[in-house]
Write a structure and sequence with these properties.
- By secondary structure, this protein is an alpha/beta fold.
- The protein has two domains: about 240 residues, Aspartate Aminotransferase, domain 2 (3-Layer(aba) Sandwich); about 130 residues, Aspartate Aminotransferase, domain 1, CATH 3.90.1150.10.
- It contains 15 helices and twelve strands.
Length: about 400
């Protein structure tokens, strides 16, 4: 899935002699507006949670056409807090995707739940509702669908399952801030929506996240829990209208966002749709350029949806491409192109094998994708020359293999 959360596991980093020639994967697009706002924040004397966080929350809520949003330190924090708000108890089962970043599963474990993996639709790389249905038991309490790579999942089918079995739904929108499904914005369809502003995301605050919730009382609780469980934040306590005591009303966490982060996010949010269109243009150029190469390309967007175009992924099948996926990664790096892997399937990780006895082959679609996938650079920071270099490198490797 920053997945803050996403540290972009297995991202390959520059080794070229001149790093300025290396095409960095997921390079953030920072402009003067953000820099000036951060400087103004530093000069204001208030860098912690304060007026800029409040402004960012209002702007994000307006962007998603909801009444309120709560800013937090990461999407991992957003998921953990949302799971806590569902009142799951130890041993309660939470179903999520077998193809996501490890923090999705970690949040379930930290909240006291037992993660249950469901396989993906190999074409969309999103949860397969049929497999989700097969894995629901009397202990299932929550579904956590992941809108993978910016493509909204089949959320209506998952909501039908949730209604039938009285389950809560937490949307993992780390890749899909701008996406919508049949006219409804991702993160506003289920009971909760969790977003990531990690450095490689479609918009960034360096580290950071946001939570939406259907019920106001859930947002109230999450806002308190994000800052130690206090009844008031520091900005409220230190206003000139007189001292206000704060009380710990819950056993909370240190999950708040700072004004320094929000200073970046305020301006990133304003350019979000413009940057989505730029990513879409690059995504389309990749589709055209690689159409006749021996690789599997991402499928087109589903009707009546908006794709956020967070990742552009190729599937490298060695028998078809003539090169193994990991050799392809190394070859791209040697040509000065940064690439990522999103992701190895969850069951590949040793810790989950130890805890739950999972075997990757038990989720065949996620296993296959996780062992073949490669993410190419995609973002508004890319220059025309860099896009051409990425295309040229992919063609060179696959035509010579």
């Amino acid at each position: 899935m920053d997945r803050s959360r996403n540290q972009d596991m297995n991202t390959h980093t520059p080794t070229a002699k001149n790093d300025s020639e290396f095409v960095v994967f997921g390079q953030p697009h920072i402009l003067e507006e953000e820099i000036e706002e951060v400087v103004a924040c530093l000069r204001s004397g208030w860098i912690g949670t304060g007026p800029r966080v409040a402004r960012f929350e209002r702007d994000f809520a307006e962007f998603k056409s909801v009444e309120r949003a709560v800013a937090v330190g990461s999407c991992s924090a957003a998921l953990h807090l949302s799971l806590g708000a569902t009142d799951i108890e130890p041993g309660d089962e939470v179903i999520t995707s077998a193809l996501t970043f490890c923090s999705t599963v970690n949040a379930i474990i930290h909240a006291g739940g037992r993660p249950v993996l469901a396989d993906i639709d190999r074409c969309t790389m999103n949860l397969d509702p049929r497999d989700v249905a097969a894995r629901i038991t009397p202990r299932t309490r929550v579904l956590v669908p992941v809108h993978f790579a910016g493509r909204p999942c089949a959320i209506d089918q998952l909501l039908e399952l949730a209604a039938r079995h009285e389950l809560r739904v937490i949307e993992d929108c780390a890749h899909a801030i701008e996406a919508d499904y049949h006219g409804r914005g991702t993160g506003t369809i289920g009971d909760f929506g969790c977003f990531s502003f990690y450095a490689t995301k479609n918009m960034t605050t360096g580290e950071g996240g946001m939570v939406l919730a259907r019920r106001p009382e859930d947002l109230d609780s999450i806002k308190s829990l994000a800052l130690h469980g206090l009844s008031k934040d520091a900005w409220s306590r230190f206003q000139s209208s007189g001292h206000k005591h704060s009380y710990a009303v819950q056993v909370g966490y240190k999950y708040n966002m700072m004004d320094l982060q929000a200073a970046i996010g305020i301006h990133q949010l304003r350019r979000l749709e413009k940057n989505r269109r730029l990513r879409q243009e690059i995504w389309s150029r990749y589709q055209d350029a690689f159409e006749h190469l021996p690789v599997e390309l991402p499928v087109a967007s589903e009707p009546d949806t908006t794709h956020a175009y967070h990742l552009y992924t190729l599937l490298i099948n060695e028998s078809r491409a003539g090169i193994a996926r990991d050799d392809f990664l190394d070859a791209m790096k040697s040509l000065g192109i940064g690439v990522g892997v999103h992701y190895l399937s969850i069951a590949e990780h040793p810790i989950y094998q130890q805890l739950f006895g999972w075997k990757p082959e038990d989720w065949p679609a996620a296993c296959c994708v996780g062992r073949q996938t490669v993410s190419l650079p995609l973002g508004p920071a890319l220059t025309e020359a860099q896009v051409q270099r990425v295309i040229g490198a992919v063609r060179e490797i696959l035509r010579s293999s």
